[in-house]
Design goal:
12 helices; three-stranded antiparallel sheet; alpha/beta; 33% helix; binds N-carbamoyl-L-aspartate; 348 residues; binds zinc ion; globular
Length: 348
């Protein structure tokens, strides 16, 4: 097979940042995806519908000429989120979920939730109006091993939440473990889904230490064991509609990654579909790519499937060593390496 034409996909978990950084990265995403769920972990975070509406305008203004890319906004939950804001968010039509960042779990999560019970009223409001909760599923306690944080979150936060509020629709973001796959598989498909990144499908934690420490492969949740990676791959190869595409492309300037205390986040927007196509092909499951990338996500979010198409061609190319990023540079996933698939330019 030398080319693969798919219904145009969407990215159900994306960091676009703001200002000059937003202008640097948006063209990559807009070239591949019709829509993206845009994460609200800006500084300061996007906590109100009014802030989300203003952010949406900035994203629209940063689109390349001729682009119809549509940002799907999210709100950042804090200990002080007003439950009444949930109905305002839903009614706006531009907000498609609210994100739970446990305080301290990841980049720009300082304002996150310190104890999920503090947002009970907001979660109840979301359950009632069917506004999905998007979760960064990791506990942050210092006594919990960093590789066990997702599994511990399931046992101590997510499973009790499901029991307490079964009507709350949940997207378990960037799942990384066998435990997470098993948890999601045990839930009703209309109520609970999960996104999966290209790096967690392709790499295990050995990659972080391959010949030396690899800051550009550091993201949160951190890469896991091989048996976890295999579980993620099995979930997508099975064509389970609960698992869909979310890159978690998270740009950080090179100097903030190659540092004594490097930031968490992997940039994959430059070649997102190519990266997924490679792992699906290696797993003998290219025929599953279209539903994963273009159907399961919109169905879960209750949005129409895209009408357009994109084409991937079998054509080797070398990923640049870096891309410009707000006056600095960014090192993309697979920098300097060869990819076998390439997105064809749109036909006009
Ligand atoms: C994300 C970021 O940089 O905003 N980083 C990451 O490692 N994935 C935040 C997140 O999604 O955890
Ligand atoms: Zn993220």
């Amino acid at each position: 097979m030398d080319s693969l034409t798919l219904r145009q996909p969407d990215d159900w978990h994306l960091h676009l940042r703001d200002g000059a950084a937003l202008h640097s990265v948006l063209a990559h995403t807009a070239a591949q995806f019709a829509r993206a769920i845009v994460m609200p972990n800006l500084k300061p975070p996007v906590t109100t519908t009014a802030q989300a509406a203003a952010y949406r305008e900035r994203i629209l203004a940063a689109r390349p000429a001729g682009s119809n890319f549509e940002p799907l906004l999210t709100l950042y939950l804090t200990d002080r989120t007003d439950p009444a804001e949930m109905a305002v968010a839903k009614a706006s039509g531009i907000i498609h979920g609210c994100k739970l960042y446990p305080a301290g779990a990841t980049t720009n999560s300082d304002a996150g939730v310190t104890d999920i019970r503090r947002i009970d009223a907001a979660l109840e409001a979301m359950a009632e109006i069917r506004l999905p909760l998007l979760v960064h599923g990791e506990v942050t306690h210092h006594d919990v091993d960093v590789f066990d944080r997702e599994a511990r979150f399931i046992d101590t936060v997510l499973a009790p939440l499901r029991a307490r509020l079964p009507q709350l629709r949940i997207v378990f973001e960037h799942v990384t473990t066998r435990a997470a796959v098993e948890f999601v598989r045990a839930q009703p498909p209309q109520e609970v889904a999960a996104t999966i990144t290209p790096q967690h499908l392709a790499l295990n934690r050995n990659a972080l230490f391959q010949g030396g420490i690899r800051p550009h492969l550091y993201c949160l949740p951190v890469l896991k064991r091989e048996h976890d990676r295999v579980a993620l791959l099995d979930a997508v190869v099975a064509g389970d509609p609960r698992f869909f595409l979310g890159t978690d492309s998270a740009p950080h300037a090179r100097n903030t990654k190659e540092s004594a205390c490097g930031c968490a986040g992997i940039y994959s927007a430059h070649a997102a579909l190519e990266l997924y196509a490679e792992v699906f092909e290696q797993a003998g499951a290219l025929h599953r790519l279209e539903a994963f990338a273009s159907e399961f996500g919109p169905r879960f979010y209750g949005l129409p499937l895209n009408a357009g198409q994109i084409t991937l061609q079998r054509s080797a190319w070398t990923v640049p060593a870096a891309y410009p990023f707000a006056g600095e540079t960014i090192v993309p996933l697979r920098a300097g390496e060869t990819l076998g698939w390439r997105l064809a330019p749109p036909s006009t």
